[in-house]
Amino acid sequence: MMLKLYGFSKVNAYACGHTRDLRVLWALEEMQLPFELVGMDHPAYDLNTEAYRQLSPFEQIPAIDDGGLVLSESAAIVVYLAKKSDRLIPGDHAGEAQVIRWCFTAMNSVEPPLLSLMVHDWTADGRCSKPRDFLVGWVNRVLTNLERWFADRDFVATKDFTVADILMAHVLLSGIKDEGLIVPYPRVASYRDRCLARPAWKHTIAAYGARVEAG
Q1: Band of residue 8 on the pLDDT scale cut at 50, 70, 90
Q2: Strand partners, 64
C-alpha cells in the first residue's frame, strides 16, 4: 500500500504557505518516496472528525498512514521517513543522535519563542509592550545561540543536509514574519536561505502553491 499523507487542500490565508505539512512534503521530495496526498479542507472542518482524530489526536496536519502505521507530528514523521528510506539521516549511531538532537532543538528550543511572538503580534491589542519585549528578548537569545553554532558549519546537525535541516529551516521560514528579527544574525539567515535554495524545496513549495487554496 502506498504511503498516505494527510495535508491541506484549503487553509486560512494567514497560514497558507507556512503549514507543517510542507516539512513532510519537502522530505518526501528529497527522498523521492512515492505517496498519495489526502487533501484536507481546514475551513470545512475536515480535521475535526472522529475519523481524523484516530490519525491525529490533536486534529492537526500533517499525519501519515504507511500501510497501517499511523503517525502525526511533523518531526516524528520526517525522522520515520528518513529511517525508512535510509536518506537524510546518518547510518551510524553518533550521527543519528545528532540529527535527533537537532530535530528536538528545532521543535523545542527555536520554534516556541518564534511562534509565541507570532501569536502575540496576531492577538495583542497594543496596550502593554512588556509581553512583546520579553518575547523579542527570548527570540534574540535563541537566534544568538544559533548564530554562534553556525560559525563553522553549513548544516545544523552534520556536515550534510539532513531532516534536522528541513525542520530547522522551515521553523525559521514560517516562524519569522518580521525579517528585521533575523538581520542581526547573518549566519542564521544564510543557513536558512541555503536550505531553501535546494531544488526539492523549490519544487515542493511551487506544487503546494498550485494546489492549496487559501480561504
Answers
A1: very high
A2: 5, 71
3-state secondary structure the chain: CCCEEEEEEEECCCCCCCCCHHHHHHHHHHHCCCCEEEEEECCCCHHHCHHHHCCCCCCCCCEEEECCEEEECHHHHHHHHHHHHCCCCCCCHHHHHHHHHHHHHHHHHHHHHHHHHHHHHHHCCCCCCHHHHHHHHHHHHHHHHHHHHCCCCCCCCCCCCCHHHHHHHHHHHHHCCCHHHCCCCHHHHHHHHHHHCCHHHHHHHHHHHHHCEEC
Contact present, 10 and 67 (Cβ < 8 Å): no
Q: How do residues 132-185 score in pLDDT, each as one tens digit?
A: 999 999 999 999 999 999 999 999 999 999 999 999 999 999 999 899 999 999
Average pLDDT, the chain: 97
In this structure, the number of other CB atoms found within 10 A of the CB of residue 78 comes to 28
Q: How confident is the model at residue 61 (pLDDT cuts 50, 70, 90)?
A: very high
Q: Which three cell numbers stand for residue 57?
A: 489526536
Is residue 34 a contact partner of residue 2, using CB atoms and an 8 Å limit? yes
Close Cβ partners of 144 (under 8 Å, ≥ 6 residues apart): 185
Determine whether 54 is exposed, middle or buried from the number of CB atoms within 10 Å of its CB (0-12, 13-18, 19+): exposed
